[in-house]
Design goal:
434 Repressor (Amino-terminal Domain); mainly alpha
Amino acid sequence: MRVKAVRLQSGHSQKYLASQVGVTFQQIQKYESGANRIGSGRLFEIATVLGVDVSTFFKGADSEGRQPPQEVLDFGNLSRTDHEIMKILTMIDNPKFKLAVRNMLVSLSADIDPDLPPE
């Protein structure tokens, strides 16, 4: 999740990051979703491409890499509207509705980040 947050904050697409690191954008998706683990060497490459210190991905973690349960992702300087949208999204209980909203947002933002496929 931190890789995704830092990537979004830096304004890069999954496709760009993948091309710079030498993997497919699908692999970046798997890293960001937690489906695949990221080796230390690859994490260092990602940090270099995104222009951050590798320690950025570990802030707030304990000595075994676990995140505290109250952790909130830092997406940088979100606008008030962005915060309101995120708050509203967290109040949607129905998984089908939440997925529909997610897919609608992906569709609306396709011009910005075409690497986000609908689920």
